[in-house]
Amino acid sequence: MTGALVLFSGGQDSTTCLAWALDRFERVETIGFDYGQRHRVELDCRSRIANGLKGMNPIWAARLGQDHTLDLGVLGQMSDSALTGDAAIEMQANGLPSTFVPGRNLIFLTLAAALAYRRGLEIIVGGMCETDYSGYPDCRDQTIRALETAINLGMDRRFTLQTPLMWIDKATTWALAESLGGADLVELVRVETHTCYLGERGRQHDWGHGCGTCPACELRANGYSRYREAA
Question: Vertex 53, ends 49 and 54: CA angle to 5°?
């Protein structure tokens, strides 16, 4: 078993990926990014989630190591996106949603690899998925595999980019959380994680906090409904 660095935003997907990594690797660290996102409240959820994970499993508590948060304000300044500015969430003429932040995952994974290089971690885990997603091209498996090759060539190091959610839908993501940590982990994801693009944290729905109408909330809510129906 080896060490892993998990891209941990404070959302449902990254929290499930963190539990997945803690279940597999002896040493796990986390990295988050502040890029001026409208839903920056997700970063405030991270410490509560980490404490919750440590509290539900002593093995996970022993394995969970240092957390790193990087200031990527320049990414928000460069982008023209509904995730980083007060713009409407809608489909654009190019077929991509206005929430797409060009280069985001490419930058996240490259910086994560640079940190993993320094920290002696070989596995980088991200919650990218092209099964139940908003259509971002930098979430596709083809993109991740190409970037893995480029990172390994450019750093002369053998990193593996793991994307455990790539081929599963949101209902199965909820089920994966249950398989990893039982009802306690499902409840932690439901109550403490944040997915809503608008940063709404007030109302508690059965699937979690959020506005209930943005694409991220709709994906999460529909997935939870299908998960509960299959239970």
Answer: 120
Residue range of the domain that includes 152: 3-230
Residue 152: CB atoms within 10 Å: 15
Structure tokens at 73: 């304000």
pLDDT at 1: 60
Number of structural domains (the chain) is 1
CB 152 within 8 A of CB 110: no
**Mean pLDDT confidence for 63-70:** 98
Q: Could you give the CA distance from residue 175 to residue 124 in angstroms, rounded to a whole number? A: 23
| Residue among 49, 46, 50 nearest 64 (CA) | 50
CATH of the domain at 192: 3.40.50.620
Residue partners of 179: CB distance under 8 A and separation at least 6: none
Distances (CA, A) of 39 to 83, 99, 104, 218, 221: 7, 12, 15, 16, 17
Q: By C-alpha distance, which of 43, 54, 34, 56 is closest to 14?
A: 43
Report pTM: 0.96
Contact in structure between 19 and 227 (CB atoms under 8 Å): no
Number of Cβ atoms within 10 Å of the Cβ of 52: 19
Identify how many contiguous H helices and E strands the chain contains and give both numbers: 8, 7
